[in-house]
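Bug: token stream looks shifted between consecutive jobs. Job 1:
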Amino acid sequence: MQRYFTDILCPEDKRFTLSGDDARHMTRVMRMKAGDSFIAVFKDQTAYRSVITDSGETDVEAIAEEKLDQTPELPIHVTIAQGLPKGDKLELVIQKATELGFSRMIPFKADRSIVKWDDKKGQKKTDRWQKIAREAAEQSHRTVIPDIATPVSFHDLVESFSNYDAVITAYEEQAKSGEKSNFSSVLSRLPEGSKLLVIVGPEGGLSEKEIDILEQHQAVSCGFGPRILRTETAPLYALAAISYHYELMR
């Protein structure tokens, strides 16, 4: 069943209106009409099976009929800090990471980032990333749309560490040396509801200077298996492992 997010709380009378892109998608793309059902996710992350009562060119009126008891979110809050990669790789990461349950993306400017961020044109790109996250959240039946931040400096990223219960870094030298336990050790001591920051470098990885600074600030360097992963693969590997640890092993 098609899913749409709203920026309101469910009204007491259960009647609400969708407008803008969502309304156009419902009426023009999905060809939905009065009597058709869909799932509405409200601002407080509650989801209701809803029915269209009326529709026009720009608005769709509906009523929330049945509250759904769903728990599709990861038991911990995972933020991915991704060194700015080339091309549209970040779009792929945002889409797939949303499907895998992450909470937030923080792109950052790393020493080896080839892409140079243009602050003047950046808002348009950030808006596109947020739209990709929204569409992926609808497709994967989530109740939360991940937040996509504007790219930050490496220094600002490190300064944010106090917001998290643990910080790990994907480091290929750890994988080469056969390190296998750091990642699982961090997860084993994080209870549900914890906040985890996963840092992934751009193409070429993080510099030795960056790794030294991260470790000085208590970030745990981890090998993600014995193979060397691409920048767009590493965060998805981490999220899959986190899902297995918290959702399939328990």
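Job 2, same session, no restart:
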Amino acid sequence: MSDFTSQYQCVGCMLQSPIFKLLSSEELIKIEECRVEVTYHPGETIIKQGTACTHVISFAHGLAKMYLEGDGRNVIFRLIVPGDFVSGAGLFVNNRHHYTMTALRESRICLIDSLVFIDILRSNQQFWEEYLRHTQTRQIFYMDKLLRLSQKNSRGRIADILLYLSNDIYKSNNFEMDLSTPEIAEMTSMSKESAAKIIKEFCQEKIICLDEKAVLIQNISLLQDISKKG
């Protein structure tokens, strides 16, 4: 069950997404007055594909996956970490969410009324430019991911994901995995059997060590080489 108890205040909040640092105290107060603070438990849906973009999200704590729902198969294209900002791909197009976001860990987020957010965007040029920069950075990330998936073999794809988790998500070569093997498969456009096979090979070759959910990257240079040549 989601918890709606407020823990933070917008003005002076150290957990807000960096994009909000460009707002004045008055603008932050406007956001404070229209936001809802919610805790989601693992497995709970934060955003549902096809629903209306009524709110934008400042992700304060936890971990979530963002994915496209297909016919019987999903594609995970991004993980959401503290400090991330999510506005919805259809906010200025058809006011619909084009993906689903689900909590992987207990996650604390701020839901901000999209109409108030848009109003502040239109009145704050610097904030608007930073929002465009943020959006375009994400577009570049998605295009790069699409290129990697289309050009790399199975070993290269798994190596890419392990490096992404190590460098961008956990910031360590030794981490507790929040994703299951089927979810790794959904991130690499592979079957779960193929993903499990490659992970087992990496363990046998002592590239990684896997103990239930604990992952240790033992040979980072070889993993990088597989990613590069894959």
